[in-house]
């Protein structure tokens, strides 16, 4: 597979921001072809979870997503802070967004949102034994409604294309397979 790998000759930052950074790489392809400007988006890594309550309901969140202009039904999760362990980041996001804490967690998938333009990773966990332990602790610009669905209801939401976030659909797919809810 390394015969396909490009060599980065130089990188120039076009924009640096707290949530997204844009750089232009000058690269050399294996056949010697030079790519003068290949644009790469730098995002922090993300963690999310298919979170099951003690009574086997899936905790979902509904929030506005400005870039797409939609209200989105999603699994809870968010940015892993710099220096933070990915599982700790996921547990923190679950607690902040939902107020739920979980007995056990298991990493079920590691995926890239768009590896052609971004290098960040999304880690998806299956969290079990969730119980509400506190109120939400949301960021300044977050407005999140917490909802619970049965596994069958989530399967129907997926079938009806009601969960628009692709990374969250992927995590749900892996979790439903792990739980034996789909074959």
């Amino acid at each position: 597979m390394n015969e396909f790998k490009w060599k980065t000759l130089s990188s120039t930052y076009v924009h640096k921001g707290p949530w997204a950074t844009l750089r232009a790489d000058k690269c050399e392809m294996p056949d010697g072809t030079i790519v003068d400007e290949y644009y790469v988006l730098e995002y922090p890594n993300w963690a999310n979870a298919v979170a099951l309550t003690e009574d086997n309901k899936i905790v979902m969140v509904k929030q506005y997503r400005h870039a797409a202009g939609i209200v989105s039904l999603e699994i809870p999760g968010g940015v892993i802070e710099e220096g933070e362990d990915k599982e700790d980041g996921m547990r923190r996001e679950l607690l902040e967004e939902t107020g739920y804490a979980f007995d056990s967690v298991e990493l079920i998938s590691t995926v890239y949102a768009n590896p052609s333009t971004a290098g960040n990773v999304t880690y998806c966990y299956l969290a079990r034994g969730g119980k509400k332990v506190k109120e939400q602790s949301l960021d300044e610009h977050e407005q999140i409604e917490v909802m619970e669905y049965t596994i069958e209801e989530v399967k129907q939401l997926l079938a009806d294309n009601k969960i628009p976030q692709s990374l969250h659909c992927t995590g749900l797919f892996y979790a439903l397979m792990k739980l034996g809810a789909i074959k």
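The chain is about 20% helix and 45% strand. The first strand starts at residue 7 and ends at 16.
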